[in-house]
Design brief:
390 residues, alpha+beta, Alpha-Beta Plaits, six-stranded mixed beta sheet, 2 domains
Length: 390
Amino acid sequence: MPLNIPLDRDYLIQQTQAMVQIDSINSDLEAGAVGEGAIAQYLAQQLQQIGIEPIIHEVEAGRSNVVGILKGTDNGKSLLLNGHTDTVGVTGMQEPFSGAILDGKLYGRGSYDMKASLAAMLTVMKGFVDAGVSLAGDLLFTAVIDEEYGSKGTEHLVQHYQADAAILTEPTNLRICCAHRGFAWIEVITYGRAAHGARHHEGIDANMHMGRVLREIETLSQTLLKQTPHPLLGTASIHVPLIEGGTSQSVYSAQCRIELERRLLPDDTLSDVTAQIQAIIDKLAQQDPQFKATVNTFFSRKPYEIDPSAEIVQVVTDCTTNVLGSEPEIYGELWWMDSTLLADAGMETVIIGPTGDGIHADEEWVDVDSIMKLAQILRDSALTYCNRKA
């Protein structure tokens, strides 16, 4: 059956290059960045040219999700293909928007993360239209904004669209990703008393008090790393990415602030993680009546896990095996992805994407052959899944 739906390799490469050449740096990440407006307009035009009416959702001014739907003809299962249009910045990159191909690698910001995946999704949609093949269930192309910062695009998407299952096409080196860690950002502030640096009898040093907190956080970090690892994700972790305290030389610091990042496993709950930090603060306060601090968990994202025996995982695994000639690795990713939001909206979600390197790095590339293989996997998965009865 897949042989009746040819995929245009030249079109695939052209689309990947064209999207890499469009600046779509997330405007929440970098002041003055252009955002996703131009690439959304481009994708809408490409869907129109294919013969699919684009649906544009302006999530924020100048920042739009783009959706295209191949309507099913019978009571088949619906499948949503998902990718994000935003990228991180390009500082340190020599030619961030070149799209140049050298030795089978296509270079540029977003080539691997994840414009090649968008091109594969688009090529699959074009393949079905060109072949005149209808699926029993709906097939949705969804390109969203803001995955690299706040995931506003997917949060908006799931309020308007639903499917039986989703394939998130984040880069995985053609492995099947069935889990990823979540995270919590936690603020801790210690409070002292400002005084002249010579008046030690009056001052209370918030920075010194924070030093006690940091020692406890280091102990917690080592404890987490020694716990029984998750089979796909390893151990939880915690670190201190930001710290600030004090106002001037010769002044006792009245306040010191840190931000913690706690990476979460599927069994972790936000309340338990916050309680761990609060317990440290309570312990230190009991040891010293002058110690005062507050804890505030100000942003978090849940971890994600799907059973490898789930139907969509089995479909994608079988199709990947057929394309690659060997069974793909099932693995877990350390960073967070929008799959949690798709799953929380009721869609069984699996993650697979092309091969490459340089995510958020000075040199980013994607393997061209792997984009074609991804397109074949997505095509075959859609044929299998969408033609099953809902």
